[in-house]
Design brief:
306 residues; 75% helix; globular; binds zinc ion
């Protein structure tokens, strides 16, 4: 890693992270991300440029607005640092190539969607649909190298020139988008049948279309499976935490016996989990990031085990 590249790239990541914070706050609320200038959500005073320096300002002001002292969420700091780290990781993994640019853009969108989903349970079209378009365009420049490029040339004669390769890569991106979207659409339909209420919105379908366009079929399926496992583990962990907490409360406050408190707490904990919206978009975006850094290694390791 060359420090003359890494350092400016990290600084660029911090600046993009700062902009991403604006997007995370404004896009779900339908406010423009360019106008008006950043303002404190509490006192609505515009934030001067010297209070808007990534990381430094948050630390200097100790996470409070200079005027009204309203606390500023540590999310601002986290998103800036994560975007900086993401840009560095892309450079470390892909070197000084166009792939680094592609995955910086992809990771930037994923981070933004992860935080908007966690905060608002909403995945803005401005991120997912522009991401889908960006993924398809990138496939023309950086080969996706997925199933279509591997299988199709054996079936139909294709021009061996650059245009043929570009077309295959684009088809890989389109196939990835179609597979990602239909998986989530199908899962949503099954969930609606089984539970009687909507568990996944159409936002998740568009999110996976975008992920598919960037990653191709294989890594998209990897993303969906890994996210399902992570989401299930998270659900199980939440269920147990709520169960233990409510059992203790019942024993202390209602003086119930251990077995009775455990049984009743279990009943109320399972109902609580059914109503609790598991932010599936958070797991999908997180695992999509794991997929582009480690997915091919993990898949290779998995095939060797079979
Ligand atoms: Zn303020």
């Amino acid at each position: 890693m060359d420090f003359a590249v890494a350092l400016p790239l990290f600084a660029l990541g911090l600046a993009f992270g700062s902009f991403l914070n604006v997007c995370i706050y404004r896009l779900p609320r339908g406010i423009s991300v360019v106008h008006p200038r950043s303002a404190c959500p509490h006192c609505e005073q515009p934030i001067p440029f010297y209070d808007n320096v990534p990381i430094v300002s948050w630390l200097v002001l100790r996470g409070r607005c200079r005027r009204c002292q309203a606390p500023i969420s540590p999310r601002y700091l986290a998103v800036e640092l994560l975007t900086g780290a993401l840009f560095l990781a892309c450079y470390g993994h892909f070197g000084l190539t166009l792939a680094t640019l592609k995955y910086c853009v992809f990771g930037f969108l994923l981070l933004g969607l992860m935080f908007t989903d966690a905060e608002t349970q909403f995945l803005p079209d401005k991120m997912t649909l522009s991401g889908l378009a960006a993924g398809l365009l990138f496939s023309l420049v950086i080969p996706v190298n997925d199933l279509v490029s591997e299988i199709l040339p054996g079936l139909v004669p294709l021009p061996a020139s650059g245009a043929g390769g570009r077309l295959l890569s684009l088809l890989d991106a389109v196939a990835g988008a179609a597979v990602g979207a239909s998986f989530l659409y199908g899962a949503g339909a099954i969930y609606l049948r089984a539970r009687g209420h909507e568990g996944m919105g159409f936002g998740d379908v568009k999110l996976m279309a975008m992920v598919g366009a960037f990653l191709g079929i294989r890594l998209t399926i990897f993303t969906i499976f890994a996210a399902s496992i992570a989401g299930s583990l998270f659900g199980l962990w939440t269920l147990c935490a709520v169960w233990i907490k409510r059992t203790r409360r019942r024993m202390l406050r209602l003086h119930e016996s251990g077995p009775q408190a455990r049984r009743r707490a279990w009943g109320s904990a399972t109902i609580a989990l059914q109503r609790f919206p598991v932010p599936f978009g958070v797991f999908l975006t997180g695992m999509a990031m794991v997929a582009f850094f480690l997915g091919n290694h993990l898949l290779g390791w998995y095939w060797r085990w079979l």
